[in-house]
Amino acid sequence: MIMHKNLIFIVLLIFLSNCGYSTVYKNNSVSNINIIIVEMNGNREINNRINSRLKKYYSNETENIFRIKMNTILNKEIISKDATGKITNYELQAISSFQINYNEKNVSFTFKEKLNIKNIEDSFEQRKYENVVKNNFASSIQEKLILKLKTIK
After folding, report:
1. Does 116 reside within a domain?
2. Which pLDDT score is estimated for 3?
3. Which among 19, 88, 99, 153 has most CB atoms closer than 10 A?
């Protein structure tokens, strides 16, 4: 009986360990595109974060060259105030526009990220949280851009 349970356990383990799981971006090979940032305008902080994430796509080993002009706007708008006039909630929004030149084709994309944020009393913690949000915006925009570039081909 114990041998029978062990055999069933081993068979289940073999089948479950080979279930075919693979990561979502496994086929996003880095070497098949080359990104050249020609121009960056707008919010320098977000642009630099996007640019640093795109550096892994700088390759001279491919003929798929994308020349990109980037313009990013970062808005911080007040959503609500309390009875004393103190800001309680605001919206942080990043809008990135890309003009892409690829094989004599010009294509434009715009990506928009926004998040409603509660105001924190501690200004240091507030800036730290905003930096995390800006990093997330840059990461999301970079991923969307790479997926769009893959569809241009």
Report:
1. yes
2. 73
3. 99
Joined tokens for residue 30: 């880095």
Q: What is the number of structural domains in the chain?
A: 1
The gap from C-alpha 147 to its chain's centroid, in whole angstroms, comes to: 10
Euclidean distance between CA atoms 126 and 114, whole angstroms = 17
* Sign of the CA dihedral with 126 first, then 45, 89, and 117 last: negative
Task: Report if residue 83 sits inside a domain.
Answer: yes
> Is 52 domain-assigned?
yes
Give CA 22 to chain center in angstroms: 20
Which domain CATH number covers 53? 3.30.160.150
For residue 148, give the 3-state DSSP assignment.
helix
Q: Can you spell out the DSSP letters for 113-129?
A: EEEEEEPPSSHHHHHHH
Per-residue model confidence (pLDDT) at position 18:
62
Describe the strand order of the beta sheet including 105-118 as a list of residue ranges: 34-42, 65-81, 87-102, 105-118
- Ranges of residues in the chain with a pLDDT under 70 are 1, 12-13, 15-31, 153
Q: Which letter does DSSP use for residue 31 in this model?
A: G
